[in-house]
Amino acid sequence: MLMRKTLLWKILRHLGAIAALVLLGGLLSATLVRLAPGFDADERELDPSLNAESVRALRQSRAAEHNVLSFYAGYLRGALHGDLGTSHALGQPVQTLLRERWPVTVRVAGIGLLLAWLLASTLAFTACLWRRSAYEILGTTVSGAFLCIPAAVLALLSVILNAPGYLAIALIVFPRIYRYSHNVLAKAYTLPHITAARARGLGEARILAWHVLPVAGPQMIALAGITVSIALGATIPVEALCGLPGIGQLAWQAALSRDLPLLVNLTVLVTLVTLLANSGADVMNYMLRPQEAKRGPEEINAA
Amino acid sequence: MTGRRAFLRLLFCFAPLCLALVFLTLTSGAAFSQSGGELRFCLRSEPKTFDPLLVDDDSSLSIRYLTGGVLLRVNRHTQDLEPELAESWKVSDDGKQITFKLRRGITFSDGSPFSSEDVAFTIQRLMDPALHSSTGDAFRSSSGAVSTKIIAPDQISITFPAPLAGLERLFDQVAIMSAHSPKKEAAVLGPFMVAEYKAGSSVLLRRNPNYWKKDSQGRRLPYLDSIRLDIQSNRDVEMLRFKRGELDLINVIDSDYFDRLAATSPQLAHDAGPSLDSDFMWFNQVASAPIPEYKRAWFRSTNFRRAISQAINREDLSRVVFNGHAQPAVGPVSPANKFWFNNKLKAEPYRPAAALQRLQADGFHLQNGALFDKGGNPVEFSIVTNAGSKPRERMAVMVQEDLGKLGIKVNVVTLDFPSLIERISQKFNYEAAMLGFRNVDLDPNGQMNIWLSSAEDHAWNPQQKSPETAWEAEIDRLMRAQASTADPKKRKESFDRVQEIAAEQAPFIYLVNQNALSAISSAVQGANPGILSPQTFWNAERLTLNSTTRASR
Amino acid sequence: MNAARKLACVVVLAVCAVSLAANWLAPAGYARQFREAPSAPPSHQHLLGTDEVGRDRFARILYGTRISLLLAPAAAFVSTVLAALVGGLAGYVGGIWLRLARGFTDLFLSLPWLFLLITVRALLPLNVSPLVSVLITFLILGLLGWAASARVLSTSADALRNSDFVLQARASGLHGPRLFFVHVLPNLKPVLYAQFWISIPVFILAEANLGILGLGVAEPLPSWGSLLRELEGLISFREEPWRLVPLLLLIVVMTSFQLLLSNEEVTA
Question: Across the strands, what pairs with B227?
């Protein structure tokens, strides 16, 4: 009974913290965008056909967004009614834009991420299980190679080869996953009880499942959490170059034109997804920790 | 042994997945679907508006050109004015009034009839000072109301408060909107109409079934069924898609890509000769700019500017950066503008020794390979330019090296466009800037806001209360003179003198005039690329697609 | 493994030696423009050809190596230290600090830092010397790049906090900072090293992208990032395979470094 109530309380507290952070993220991003130079500048100012009043009107067109706090308050008020504002650059309500585009990004980033994990895990497990230096070198070289290729080049390559966008994302993300997971696994393998288990004649698969993964697992799960935000970041060049009408392409457009309503919404979205992914990883780690559950009140206080 | 078994087990699990991946990769290429009659090319940026009166950026201009019906059209090839929706026109002697006789029996794309009421509606809307459109502003060079008088359903006269030089040619930019149609701006008079718009992705234009123009055999134009405009700002991807046959033309192509294309398929690459565009740099002469006083003194000295101009090797710029698809620029008007170009002027030749002499006359001296001014300050300044334009970045690097030979240290700073604009037109915290000018208009009246010292686009020192130098006062006088008369000869005299002063004083250091380069696939028939925008599809209503050539690509 | 590590050692030393000897090996210098031969293929004079304005690519690679291979690891070191401090320390301390650090890190990961970079550029003088611009660029990269691994580190440190040997160490009287630096931090090495190795090429590439904002290495200084950006004109690399040399060199150097230190990464 005590555990269930505490669990519910923890979940509520967690969600509250996420909501607060998301709101803070929106405000901070609005501040960053507003304070960056060039906020009031529009390339149409350079058009010699415009007369003086028109140029003045152009410079004043963003006056409503000058005060970040009042803009943000207005935005939140609108958001409560479902109105997320209108994008300057694309002239459409943000809600419509996001609704049309998020499935594309979820698909591209999701499949890309899965592929990246597949690829990285295969290489990492191979290098750890079959402890021959050749696999170590292969893994390091392959992942190092893809890490050194600029994301734009990988995206261009996928356009040239007519490969789907998620492949580019997978190739961008997997080197990071590989390096971390390889190191974590390799470290886990050096622990004394692995040698003991081997000495007792346990099979490699058994060692992996029962002795290595429980140690390396929490860190891998935490890694999974942050790879979500890495994959989201990778969607920006990939979608822009592969012509995929997703949120990454939107973000690039918004950044170029200092589109405040759109940027605030995108930051809120990204913060939400990042927080959910990382909190999800934390929750999973918490629930998978058998020793702690046995520890009782001390753990509940310390966590 | 056990490790190997475990590995093999893993492999057997992952192998089918890997195979699936390979299969997916090989078969998921973009399906090459083509319906005969759809022209495909790219827009470099998102169209900002579909309202024809507010259009200002390249992409929106392209869409307006294809969908809007205008009274008079400047033939992009011959540069002559031709009747379009107006059968004939007459400008009054005082230059204040223009009367149009419109064609009869024309309807908008939604079927509603076209008459002088629609022209009146469009003009009234255009002349509203609150509209702040560049098309409208071009007409309103002086204050006062513009009045329209509907003489008959097919005749209308428009009266301006003051005579407007080059009045008729301005109507090439005015797309007539419907006064009564419920579809508002969606009802158009041009060869195509906007059928679909996916923000950030593409625009689909379909043929206007009610388009009035017919070809010499009496067949209704346009020949094409539709035009698909994909929004793609990356030039590598655009080039790739063109080579693969997914795009039919590239309206403006960089010289790098042009040469790569010309190496493999020379018949697809078109060089129409020098365009109206120019690339140039200038120095910040604003009195209140936050730059050191001694630097302001350099920039305000004509000798200094001319010396810099002489120290830049324009031939090298044309040859290295543009592979010969450019030529040294002379002044604000390119030689391609046959009537207005002052052909007595020549581009500043590369004379570094003479440049050094000019500088020494101003008190500069060389010491250990570095140049110092008379106050002992080392000559060092920065050139800001916009990122994303490889030719311009390369030009800046070459200028850096050229000026380095004179002992001048140049720092090249590439900035994102909004930051750049803020620096050069609002805060003035820059020293030198390098930009390009995309000249759409042949008439120098379009450059009024650049040459008038009180205007905002007088880049080196905008919005002066009164001209700060004698030569700027002279230019003010000459520009006003050319705007107040309709006599082309008198206008040319005044503007020729403006070009001479610009060459003497070098407020803008003109670098190169690029050639108009484009790429057109062999499937497109009837294309005749020129130098006036839109270079390749100015005759879109007469273009056809050879579907067999397309299918075989 | 020994043979491979010896080879890696040789490669690393060779690269260091060659880049230090750039003045002798490439007397043409990285800035001199041979304008009569832009985009030229390799020849006696120009071992790897010239770039679009006629600068010797070989010289640019050598000089670029100095800059990038010195500063990128420095920036990677900064970001690793920050990650260790924020993630590792928070994980070790636990409780409310861990939650705060995690929230801060998540927020940090989601903000559009592009605008901060644009603001930084605006605050810097236009005539900043190329060396200073490079230092500032890599410093900023280091200060911004720590968030992802801090997250993983917080989990690792959290797990360590309740692990047996840490409890044992506490029981034997070790507390506070000493416990952290002697027992916890070394066990975080795998993640820290991973962070370090990943950051180096990421920062090298990021520096080139920062050029769009006016930060990054100023012309005419070469950097690996700008050399790698040449690859973006990919369509021609089949005809100009020498353009791939910077990429291959970077891969070889990174792999060699990692192979050299691979044992360090996993032992406590």
Answer: B39, B205
